Amino acid sequence: MGGQEILLQELDGDGVLRVTLNDVARRNALSESMLGQLTRVMQAASSDRAVRVVVLAANGPAFCAGHDLKELTAARAAPDRGREYFARIMSSCSALMQAILSCPKPVIAEVSGVATAAGCQLVASCDLAIADEGASFSTPGVHIGLFCSTPMVALSRNVASKHAMEMLLTGDMVPAARAAEMGLVNRVVPKGALRDATMEMARKIAGKSSMTLATGKRAFYEQRDMAIGEAYEYASKVMVDNMLARDAEEGINAFIDKRAPHWQDS
């Protein structure tokens, strides 16, 4: 790599942390190194009070091409034909996706180019996603005899079952407009407008109480797979605790007084 950083970070004055995949030569593949670095960045962002929103972006023609197949193939030379290495990489990838979900800060994918296999999984694992009109998505493992089982976990929790199965069974490339129709991305913008559109959304969210955002994100994912009665019971308790928070009291008073709120993030 000639000393090139494969992951770039930039924190602006609004608390938006831009994390940019920069392994252009490998199409920003989720190599062992990339998985480790991304996970550490997400863990650090989770506890950094200066970070209010995380944007995942990428340099080059690919957002993320999934796992590094050359690394995986090289591991087959081991006596166990790569079993231990494959298990470690899949565990590392799962840990990254869960680090995104458990991060109390909203995470937005800024997608230009292709997002395939675990790259599509990365997009689906983010809380929000904005793509430019040239972006495309696929889970193409079936083309090479490898069903995209781990990308399936994130994909099936973001789009309807039949849409997910179509992507998984055919491996077809899905253009950005169709991905928006399916719910894989929030919106599609013209090429050249992607960064501005993403940062506009990120800064809008960053202006809210970080306590409120963390409460809401955690509650959203917790209640999603509960039975309806259990979900309402859980969400009601969350609302009560939220109502007693200082930022909720301040926000309600500011609304009544017709003034801007002053968040304490607590």
UniProtKB/TrEMBL annotation:
GO terms for molecular function: enoyl-CoA hydratase activity. Pfam families: ECH_1 (PF00378). Keywords: Fatty acid metabolism, Lipid metabolism, Lyase, Transit peptide. SUPFAM superfamilies: ClpP/crotonase. InterPro entries: ClpP/crotonase-like_dom_sf (IPR029045), Enoyl-CoA_hydra/iso (IPR001753), Enoyl-CoA_hydra_C (IPR014748), Mitochondrial_ECH-domain (IPR052377). Signal peptide: none annotated. Belongs to the enoyl-CoA hydratase/isomerase family. May play a role in fatty acid biosynthesis and insulin sensitivity. This is Enoyl-CoA hydratase domain-containing protein 3, mitochondrial. It comes from Paracoccus onchidii.
